[in-house]
Amino acid sequence: MLNEFFLKYGGIIYLIQFAFAVIIGLYFWNQLKGQQSKKNVIIKESERESFKLRSLRNIRLSEPLASVTKPSSLTDVIGQEEGIAMLKSALCCANPQHVIIYGPPGIGKTAAARLVLQEAKRNPSSPFISSARFVEIDATITRFDERSIADPLIGSVHDPIYQGAGAMGQAGIPQPKLGACTKAHGGVLFIDEIGELHNLQMNKLLKVLEDRKVILESAYYSESDNNIPRHIHDIFTNGLPADFRLVGATTRSPEELPPALRSRCMEIFFKPLEKNDISIITANAVNKISMQIDDKAMNEICKHASNGREAVNIVQLSAGMTQMVGAEIITGDIVERVLNNGRFTPRFEPKLRARPAIGFVNGLAVQGAGMGSIIEVEASCIQVDGGRGKCNITGVIDEEVMESGSKKFTRKSMARAALENAIIVLRSFYKLNFDNLDVHINFPGGIPVDGPSAGISMVTALYSSIMGREVDNTVAMTGEISVHGIVKPVGGVIAKVEAARKAGISKVIIPEDNWLSIFDQISDMEIIPVNHIEQVIKIAIGERNIIDNNRVQAV
């Protein structure tokens, strides 16, 4: 029966099988043809995009002057000899340290850090090898996900549930991604504006600095999962290596950075550029573009540019205007047009009063990242009747917000409190009566003053105004005053002394507890340590002793 069936219908069966074979063959042929077609499309698209990319790369503008003038050696970093020496001592030795560099923008902090690493790699005793990397990030744009999905600084884990996890993700394998900390392993991690880091990132960074490795976690990791590759087991078990040296740069003052970070780092201060430094930077920029500049133009740039970046930008704009008129010399008139259009303001140059005056005292302050400055303290006392006298103070911060853990509280500013201390001292030690006096203390200049370091300046200005005695205009002072007349130590004394020297001050009064042996090396200015307000009054005004000496010694 079976043979008869095949003899009768075998031809039809074979015909059906052949038809199926043809159909299946056509299907796979079409599939292969489609894949080849897609491949050809991809190849053509890739070639088209590659051509566009090559075309874009062939278009080149002239290099910006700011890039041309970028320092290529440490000698090109102008005006920071002392800061660079400290930076080299921190990084070029056998045991390099973490560093925080303070200073205003545009003075060479980043360039100095990069060049010092090159110097360190040439030192045989340095642990930095020739391939040590300089990894640079900007804290202001370093974004991260609080769920730890992506963190360009510390590193993160690409868990398999997220798009783009690839073949490993499809197999349920979490994939660690390197952050800047691991990329900088064996080298330097430079964080610009480090004070802008998010608190969570800052805490993670501190842990990395402590452990010298990055510990990553993932809910999808299991020690017993044999599908996970060995190197991923190693990363989750032992962490990613992150043995680097941190160099942070900031324009903030030290008090604004977390104490935990500061305690782990050496602190180095780069000073604001002086006129001579700006002159050198300007001359170098002009030489780079093969032009000339006249004296008036040079003076105007030095007068208005506060840092090297501003000086280079002014030169570039001025050079462009010069070329437009077909000239080869940058003139003062062209620079003035650039400065006027750019709304540049002249650099603040403290000027001493021409002669001693009543109620005027040269105080000393610190602004920003360790920048010392001269501040005027002026006092006026007007007689009133009926015991209706009152005290005013202007030019200071009235209140300040303090944070203590999760709590915030507002308190009276330290400068206003210092005025109250000053009045108590004058009442108790000099027997001055303020009941019939309208007292006004002012700090001109437009920058609000805070802190207790103007205490002895207030006492001196008030005493001068009430007694009608002139204050020596070549004397500057800083120090906190206690209600017992004791002159207490303050911060930033070195920066204040430097500011006084630049301003032409002949004598600087500082608290005795702030005295440093390096002050003995200063020959063009007298630095006088004091411990009581009587000494201050005697030096600044020339009054004879009013307080009994035995009482002063007892205090």
Secondary structure layout plus pairing:
Elements (H helix, E strand, L loop, with lengths): L1 H57 L6 H4 L12 H11 L7 E4 L6 H13 L12 E5 L16 E4 L7 H5 L4 E4 L1 H4 L4 E5 L6 H13 L1 E2 L15 H9 L1 E2 L3 E6 L8 H4 L3 E4 L5 H14 L3 E2 L1 H10 L3 H17 L4 E2 L1 H10 L15 E2 L1 E8 L3 E13 L7 E4 L4 E6 L2 E6 L1 H17 L6 E6 L12 H13 L2 E2 L3 E3 L2 E2 L5 E2 L4 H11 L3 E5 L14 E5 L2 H8 L8 H6 L1
Parallel strand pairs: 1-8, 1-9, 2-5, 5-8, 10-11, 13-20, 15-18, 20-23, 23-24
Antiparallel strand pairs: 3-4, 6-7, 12-19, 13-14, 14-18, 16-17, 21-22
Helix pairs in contact: 3-4, 10-11, 10-12, 11-13, 12-13, 14-15, 15-17
Relevant terms:
seven-stranded mixed β-sheet, 18 helices, 41% helix, elongated, 555 residues, five-stranded parallel β-sheet, disordered C terminus, alpha/beta
Molecular structure report:
It is built from 18 helices and 24 strands. The protein has 555 residues and is of the alpha/beta class. It has a seven-stranded mixed β-sheet with strand order 15-18-14-13-20-23-24. A hairpin with a 3-residue loop joins strand 13 and strand 14. It starts with a helix and ends with a helix.
